[in-house]
Amino acid sequence: MKNYTVKLYQEADYEKWNDFIDHAKNATFLFHRDFMEYHKDRFEDFSLLIYENEKLVSVLPANRVNNVVYSHQGLTYGGLVYTNKLKGTEVELILESLFCFFKDEGIKTFHYKPAPVFYFPEGNSEVEFFLFKRGALLERKEMNLVINLSAPLHISKSKLKHFRRIQEMNLDVIEENDFTSFWKLVLEPRLLNKHNTKPVHNFQEIILLKQSFLKNIKQFSAYYEDEIIAGITVFETDTVVKSQYGATTKKGEELRALDFLFINLIQKYKEEGKLFFDMGIVGDVNEKGYNVGLLKQKEELGCSVYNQDFYKISL
């Protein structure tokens, strides 16, 4: 039987960690330390490295709150990261080693948030099976709205009708490296006025992340008569494009500029060979547990529902 050793991440592990992420079966740039640490003041890091003898075979992006471990509260998704050389029985043993480590550290509860299945075409569900066998509870489910770009698009007739009308208005759709116009003139005012909230990433944070991940974080904006009226910030992985932020001004809302921008990007990424366009979850605090209008809007753009699951196991 193989023996695994679990160690807490230290600053000296920075290059080792990132190199492992670059070659892992089921990792994205969100697991790079430069992304994980942009908000390190908000979380007590509890990321782990798992070794077989001296060889690093797995990592777990995680944070700790008292005697509870999360994978990871500061990330959209997380989970155990490993290479495609690792087999299912070895993943099970690694999970057992993690549980032993947690108990030694006084951890009572582990919350597990795996990446949705469409992020990794090679498969990424071993851990969920072994968690279930160990008595983990499915704590929460969210509807994740996603377009399968390898299949024919199913954008509604009404959306396409408005798209063709707006095309005649000569809106300019551009990719821009400067996030200032979108953040300051569209996103922040819109979220404040409509929802009394702020973006998850403040302006300084998104600029820092953009500088660190030039190929992964992109800004697309729509202009009408030289005025920005809508924008979408996307996070790109090798196979998936996620619309992290999308917002429009009042003028843009009148012109349906956000839909116009979405359809442009959906077509663009389909032509470029991306596999999925992730438009995020539609969760809500109402009695239904989801936003009916948002679900309808995303389905009309061609999205289907994929589940994002959240697990909890008591140790």
State the helix count.
Answer: 10
Strand count, sense and barrel status of the largest sheet are: 11 strands, mixed
What Rg do the Cα atoms give? 21 Å
What would the principal axes of the Cα set say about the shape? elongated
Poorly predicted ranges (pLDDT <50, ≥5 residues)?
Answer: none
Ends distance: 23 Å
Count of extended strands: 15
Helical proportion, percent range: 25-40%
What is the string of helix and strand elements? EHHEEEEEEHEHEHEHHEEEHHEHE
Major sheet: arrangement of strands: 2-5-6-8-15-9-14-13-12-11-10
Structural class: alpha+beta
Report the portion of residues in β strands.
25-35%
Let me know the average pLDDT.
95
TL;DR of this structure?
The chain is an alpha+beta fold and 315 residues long. The chain has helices at residues 14-23, 33-36, 88-104, 126-133, 157-167, 180-195, 203-212, 250-255, 257-272, 292-300; strands spanning 4-8, 44-45, 48-52, 55-60, 63-65, 68-71, 81-82, 109-112, 137-148, 172-175, 217-224, 227-236, 240-248, 276-281, 304-314.
How would you characterize the overall build of this protein?
The protein is an alpha+beta fold and 315 residues long. The chain is 34% helix and 29% strand. It has helices at 14-23, 33-36, 88-104, 126-133, 157-167, 180-195, 203-212, 250-255, 257-272, 292-300, and strands at residues 4-8, 44-45, 48-52, 55-60, 63-65, 68-71, 81-82, 109-112, 137-148, 172-175, 217-224, 227-236, 240-248, 276-281, 304-314. Strands 2-5-6-8-15-9-14-13-12-11-10 form an eleven-stranded mixed β-sheet. A four-stranded antiparallel β-sheet has the order 1-3-4-7, sandwiched between helices. It is elongated. The two termini are 23 Å apart.
